[in-house]
């Protein structure tokens, strides 16, 4: 019985250490991102994911790097990973909204405007944001202009 508890305590301690180390990597990634060093940011975020694979925010950060670098398909994949993890493991609503918002921006980059608009609107229903409203408005205006040009 005592050996079992010690093993559980050791595993818990190791888990806390991994999460702490992952958080440190994430912070290094955030610093690199703010400095515009996308390669370093990506490496840090991916290292953090390896240490704490259930944290959806890390995928959201990787998605931000890919979006900034205009790697839209990779951004889309990371957003989908984030969304799946939020649904499995939970997170604040604002993180789910950010994932759908970034997914929408990636879809715009991939010229999939109808899907992008759906992602933006879903993000907006989860957590209202002026930034999302602006993206919705711009995309709807763009679609109206395209329809008028086709007529």
TrEMBL record:
The keyword Repeat applies. Keywords: Repeat, TPR repeat. InterPro entries: TPR-like_helical_dom_sf (IPR011990), TPR_rpt (IPR019734). Gene3D superfamilies: Tetratricopeptide repeat domain. One of its GO terms (molecular function) is Hsp90 protein binding. PROSITE patterns: TPR. TPR repeats lie at residues 22-55. Residues 1-30 are annotated as: Disordered. The keyword Repeat applies. Transmembrane segments: none annotated. Pfam families: TPR_8 (PF13181). This is Uncharacterized protein. It comes from Paramoeba aestuarina.
């Amino acid at each position: 019985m005592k050996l079992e508890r010690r093993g559980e305590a050791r595993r818990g301690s190791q888990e806390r250490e991994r999460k702490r180390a992952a958080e440190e990597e994430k912070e290094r990634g955030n610093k690199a991102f703010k400095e515009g060093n996308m390669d370093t940011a990506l490496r840090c975020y991916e290292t953090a994911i390896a240490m704490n694979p259930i944290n959806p925010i890390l995928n959201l950060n990787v998605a931000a790097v890919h979006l900034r670098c205009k790697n839209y398909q990779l951004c889309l994949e990371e957003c989908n990973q984030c969304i799946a993890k939020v649904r499995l493991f939970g997170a604040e609503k604002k993180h789910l909204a950010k994932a759908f918002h970034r997914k929408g921006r990636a879809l715009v980059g991939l010229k999939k405007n109808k899907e992008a608009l759906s992602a933006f609107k879903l993000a907006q229903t989860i957590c209202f944001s002026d930034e999302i409203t602006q993206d919705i408005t711009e995309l709807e205006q763009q679609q109206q202009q395209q329809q008028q040009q086709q007529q």
